[in-house]
């Protein structure tokens, strides 16, 4: 089971691994906490955007071979201009949810599916989105309740990412609001990562999963991250996005694995 905060998060962080496991015959289940109705898009935030993003999620899931898609039904908490918790958010915002109640709802699905594995995010929620931080808390507790044996934190190896951004900064002027230094504490350092999953064989499915989230490729005054990624030529895309990274906290320090079910 892959637990994400919003539609499109699965495409960015775990799509290749999901496609790989489905192709190997595993039952893959995708759960999102919210419909992403406050995401930046050409559409106005609200119920209509949430419905659009859920349709995109179902398309993405089908392309990846998912057997089931569920939404816990919480409100998208949004993001403040400074990158923290938004002051104005819905009454049922995921960040304000009772963590135990949300974890129980997720645990019910885990138990129903008899899931062997659950993916969440790292404690900082990757880049710090409040809903991503809540995914970590809720997902960790749900696994405890359900007795799910393997919990992987989907992440990004920030060391090569920082190097690439600094090199790019020499030839490209980033927008004023973009600070490369914020990535110094985002995601995970190389020496903490336990799983490096080669998903190049499934790069077509991963790219198609990203492309399914049409609403998130537009909106705002500049190119969205998803739109920029989809403009990358396929050979370079395969190189950049051909690995997905995870951290498994119950493994000895220094463990390096290349498949989610290795050493099980």
UniProtKB/TrEMBL annotation:
Stored SUPFAM superfamilies: LmbE-like
Keyword Zinc listed: yes
Pfam families with a match to the protein in the record: PIG-L
Keyword annotations from UniProtKB, A to Z: Zinc
Coiled-coil ranges per UniProt: none
Keyword Cell membrane: no
Domain of life: Bacteria
Cited InterPro entries: GlcNAc_PI_deacetylase-related, LmbE-like_dom_sf
PANTHER family membership: 1D-MYO-INOSITOL 2-ACETAMIDO-2-DEOXY-ALPHA-D-GLUCOPYRANOSIDE DEACETYLASE, N-ACETYLGLUCOSAMINYL-PHOSPHATIDYLINOSITOL DE-N-ACETYLASE-RELATED
Protein name: PIG-L family deacetylase
Organism, as annotated: Nonomuraea longicatena
Lineage: Bacteria, Bacillati, Actinomycetota, Actinomycetes, Streptosporangiales
């Amino acid at each position: 089971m892959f637990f994400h905060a919003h539609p499109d998060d699965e495409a960015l962080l775990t799509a290749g691994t999901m496609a790989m496991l489905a192709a190997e015959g595993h039952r893959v289940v995708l759960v999102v906490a919210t419909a992403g109705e406050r995401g930046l898009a050409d559409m106005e935030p609200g119920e209509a955007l949430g419905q659009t993003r859920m349709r995109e999620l179902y398309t993405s899931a089908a392309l990846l071979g998912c057997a089931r898609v569920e939404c816990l039904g919480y409100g998208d908490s949004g993001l403040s201009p400074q990158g923290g918790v938004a002051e104005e958010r819905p009454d049922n915002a995921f960040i304000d949810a009772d963590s135990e109640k949300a974890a129980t709802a997720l645990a019910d699905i885990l138990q129903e599916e008899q899931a062997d594995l659950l993916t969440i995010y790292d404690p900082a929620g990757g880049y710090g989105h409040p809903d991503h931080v809540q995914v970590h808390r809720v997902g960790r507790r749900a696994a405890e309740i359900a007795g799910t044996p393997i919990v992987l934190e989907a992440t990004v190896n920030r060391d090569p990412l920082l190097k690439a951004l600094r090199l790019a900064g020499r030839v490209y002027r980033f927008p004023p609001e973009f600070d490369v230094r914020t990535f110094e504490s985002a995601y995970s350092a190389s020496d903490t990562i336990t799983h490096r999953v080669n998903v190049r064989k499934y790069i077509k499915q991963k790219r198609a999963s990203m492309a399914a989230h049409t609403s998130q490729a537009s909106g705002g005054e500049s190119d969205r991250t998803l739109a920029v990624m989809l403009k990358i030529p396929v050979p370079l895309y395969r190189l950049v996005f051909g690995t997905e990274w995870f951290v498994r906290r119950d493994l000895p320090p220094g463990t390096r694995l290349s498949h989610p079910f290795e050493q099980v």
